[in-house]
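Is this the right way to post structure tokens for a design question? Let me know if I should format differently. Anyway, here goes:
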């Protein structure tokens, strides 16, 4: 559905997007992650045609976003972080206005509005002024606007920001439902949200793509070696001697243990090696009771932090500032 090739965006001497390449396949929910200022929002704005790239191409369903913008944009429904709502309109007035802007034929507007209002669950507030709605409902109205015209691709920038836990769950479930009939690109800083909703994850850092895979595969690739947390009633010396007799153990180190007369160790082993059963019998033979044994798996948050560890606060602040200034300049030239 979307082909991004050698995408580059410069703001003066700052390189916000650096030779970015990726493909978005049809029928998947993609999580687009990156620290503030890493080029994530800039990339999304280029894909939607909101700003122009310095170099490279974005092709949407075979249409170049710069050479054939109208045909390309017909395939996209976009929900910015701050939905472009008109507060003095009712929900119905706003959606009819958006339908007219999208050139949806008049004879189709009523049926589309009815279907989309039902899907996004805004029927009961359809005749209320937008300014009187809660933030959760405003997000739903923004999402309804993005769905008008039934675009094949939905791009959602931080769709749950500022919502309460109940509203977040409702929007997550709605996104999962939409993923059955649309290709969805979801930008979020809530990593648990990406893990719960997305089929595929793209992580960007300093304008470059640093990871692209399913959440499960990313965890396996980043894990590299298996990690085991072990708490034993033993001296450090006795446990160290025992671990040195197990070939699959690559390295280990001891950590603080609150239990009296006990030691706690983090053990790294060869990939695919599971030493728990062997370790149990060896410790039993040595008369060293096991008080705790836990296999450690990397979460998406661990992976994200590891891949973007070199993003400093100063870079984040400067890049965000330049990013915003650049987008404002682009607005003036559109």
């Amino acid at each position: 559905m979307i082909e991004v090739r050698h995408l580059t965006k410069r703001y003066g001497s700052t390189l916000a997007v650096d030779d970015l390449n990726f493909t978005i396949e049809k029928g998947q929910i993609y999580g687009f992650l990156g620290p503030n200022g890493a080029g994530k929002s800039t990339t999304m704005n280029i894909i939607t045609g909101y700003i122009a790239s310095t170099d490279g191409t974005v092709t949407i369903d075979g249409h170049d976003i710069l050479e054939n913008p109208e045909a390309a944009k017909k395939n996209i429904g976009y929900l910015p972080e701050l939905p472009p709502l008109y507060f003095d309109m009712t929900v119905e007035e706003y959606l009819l206005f958006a339908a007219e802007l999208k050139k949806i034929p008049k004879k189709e507007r009523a049926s589309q509005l009815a279907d989309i209002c039902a899907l996004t669950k805004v029927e009961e507030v359809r005749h209320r002024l937008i300014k009187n709605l809660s933030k959760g409902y405003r997000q739903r109205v923004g999402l309804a606007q993005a769905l008008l015209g039934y675009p094949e691709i939905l791009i959602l920038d931080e769709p749950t920001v500022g919502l309460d836990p109940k509203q977040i769950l409702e929007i997550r479930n709605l996104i999962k439902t939409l993923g059955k009939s649309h290709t969805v690109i979801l930008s979020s800083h809530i990593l648990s949200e990406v893990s719960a909703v997305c089929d595929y994850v793209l992580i960007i850092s300093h304008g470059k793509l640093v990871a692209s895979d399913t959440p499960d595969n990313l965890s396996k690739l980043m894990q590299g070696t298996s990690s085991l947390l072990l708490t034993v009633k033993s001296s450090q010396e006795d446990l160290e001697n025992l671990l040195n007799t197990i070939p699959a153990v690559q390295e280990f180190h001891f950590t603080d243990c609150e239990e009296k007369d006990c030691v706690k160790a983090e053990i790294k082993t060869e990939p695919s090696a599971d030493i728990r059963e062997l370790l149990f019998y060896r410790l039993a033979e040595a008369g060293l009771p096991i008080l705790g044994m836990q296999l450690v798996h990397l979460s998406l948050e661990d992976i994200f932090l590891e891949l973007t560890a070199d993003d400093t606060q100063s870079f984040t602040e400067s890049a965000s500032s330049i990013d915003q200034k650049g987008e404002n300049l682009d607005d003036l030239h559109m």
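Format looks fine. Someone answered above. Worth noting: The CA atoms of residues 255 and 330 lie 53 Å apart. The mean pLDDT is 85.
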